[in-house]
Design goal:
5-stranded antiparallel beta sheet; 3-stranded antiparallel beta sheet; 2 helices
Length: 148
């Protein structure tokens, strides 16, 4: 199912859920996961990642508003275009927003369509190897589309 909103879109395959929202006076946020997402959560999905079970995957795409400090294509957001496919070795416990046992995180900052973003991804490998979870999540993220 294609989910679209606020200049973003992504395909959520069967068994996945996606939502795109925007808080008042804030830039858009996209969440996608292998489990049900709740209506209210933090931008980086602290509540969602707290509900992750074995072999779940979650990603948050958080857009930042441009200002004197946050500038598309500059500094932290210098990388232009969507991030390369995520690999198992990209994930680690030190990259988690909230450290939880069994979870591994990954962050990428970039600019696409003149818009600055952070991609934050979390996997919780158990029966599935980290490589497989990273590959599945990357395939879903590969369907992202950005409007300028």
């Amino acid at each position: 199912m294609r989910v679209t909103g606020h200049g973003l879109s992504i395909d959520a395959p069967q068994g996945w859920e996606a939502r795109i929202f925007r808080r008042e006076d804030a830039a858009p946020v996209l969440h996608v996961a292998t489990f049900a997402l709740r209506e209210k959560d933090g931008d980086f999905g602290a509540a969602a990642t707290g509900r992750m079970r074995s072999d779940d995957a979650f990603a948050a795409l958080v857009e930042y508003r441009s200002d004197a400090v946050v500038r598309p294509g500059v500094g932290l957001f210098a990388a232009v275009g969507r991030p390369a496919a995520l690999r198992a070795h990209d994930f680690g416990s030190a990259q988690l927003q909230v450290t939880r046992g069994g979870q591994l995180g990954c962050q990428r900052f970039f600019t696409d369509s003149g818009r600055p973003f952070c991609l934050y991804a979390v996997i919780r490998p158990a029966g599935k190897r980290p490589e497989r979870l990273a590959k599945e999540l990357s395939a879903v993220l590969g369907t992202l589309a950005f409007d300028s």
